[in-house]
Amino acid sequence: MVDRRAWVATLCGLACIVTACSAPEDHPESAPTPAPGAAGIGDDYYPEAGNGGYDVDRYELDIRYDPDGGHLTGDTTVVARASHDLSRFNLDLRGFTITSVEVDGKPAEFTREGASELVITPSAPVNRGSEFRTRVRYEGEPVVADRGQLGGNGWYHTPSGGAYVFGEPESASFWYPVNEHPRDKAAFRLSASVPEGWTAVSVGETGEATTKDGWTTTTWTEDTPVASYLTMFAVDRFEVETSSLADGTPVRNAFAPGADDARDEAARTAEIVEFLESRFGDYPASTAGGVYLATNPGFALETQGTPTYPIDPNPELLVHELAHQWYGNSVSVHSWADICLNECFASYTTWLWAEEKENADLDARYRTRIESMPDELWAQPLHDMGEGNEFGAVYEKGPVAVHALRLRLGDEAFGELLRRWPAEHANGNARWEDFEQFAEHVSGQDLDEFFRAWFRGDERPADEHLHPKPARG
Ligand code: TRP
Ligand code: ZN
User: What pTM does this model have?
Assistant: First the structure.
């Protein structure tokens, strides 16, 4: 396993060197040599995640799924721009039989490598800077979820005979060919057909459903660039309720049979979004609401605009997942090592909610937490925690560290930081280092030691950082 990863990393490295050598600006005189796109986008923890050599602009999916029998037929077009002259490139797809691949309308050769790599050789190289369309037709029974640090990644079957696919860090490759990494965000359009009587659910603005020859087809459009792990697909006997936020944002709540317990929480969506807007600025997603499952995959996921919830969620869970619409979805991680940008802040947001709604004494809560934090948690860094440990400390140590930052900055600078960060990086990607710099910029303070102690360190911070004196900047 380790050897294979090292080997892949070496290959990626080689591919990058080849790319750099052939980049036209380096050698304006010589004709560039087309080179393969890398098999990974360059994430240290997931060397095969995503791919190099191009940037996806949008996905256009046409999916047909029959819950009886569990057969999926997919016809997906990936519209991308080449970042160098491409002799071949990869997409990520898990399972399925591929029936054809075309690039710009011409049949392309393809092979499959490892668990997720679909290697495509177009009939002619794709020129740097040009937009190209890769159409993949595929079918089969999707791969069932059986792994993942938290919830499994992949497909689940529901007691009512339905199915859904969601997960983090990967899930899109379980149902469509994708550049599977949050660094390559893209627009998403889906047309899904399910047998009449079933209801499909996904992310984005929902179009009218039409039924023909026993199949009901619905479309979803998300034009805001979305990280692929934030797309999802579910088919069940959903009951769908629609409304809208005060600003007109469409709200769609889908309840699976048996998810009625979630109705009270779902009814608080507008109230929660309003609270979050008071702290983080305008709601960044184009839709709101949720997908309420009647099963427990173990966790909720902040799927774009409409998070996906396990059975019997509490309001704090909605607060957490909706906070991600700013922290994680609009501003997405550059690498999975940056996951604290998502989880430390979404987790801290439930503290802010408790402060607002229950008058909770957060300083008291903070003192209790720092006294009771087990050594195993202090031992885990919040940034660059190591492959496979991304979610180890961010939920528990994360919010405590964010409160320490608030104590260090004072309420005013801290509040400004929470609001300006998502505005500054809206619809983009950021590294943890960017956040540290931004916090220093906003507060006018040198926070190196503080961040080292709380976010990068692997032991209980020294007293000066546990009980920081707010220096006014
Ligand atoms: N990001 C999710 C949350 O914080 C948690 C999560 C991580 C998850 N990996 C997952 C959920 C896989 C479902 C499946 O709410
Ligand atoms: Zn989260």
Answer: 0.92
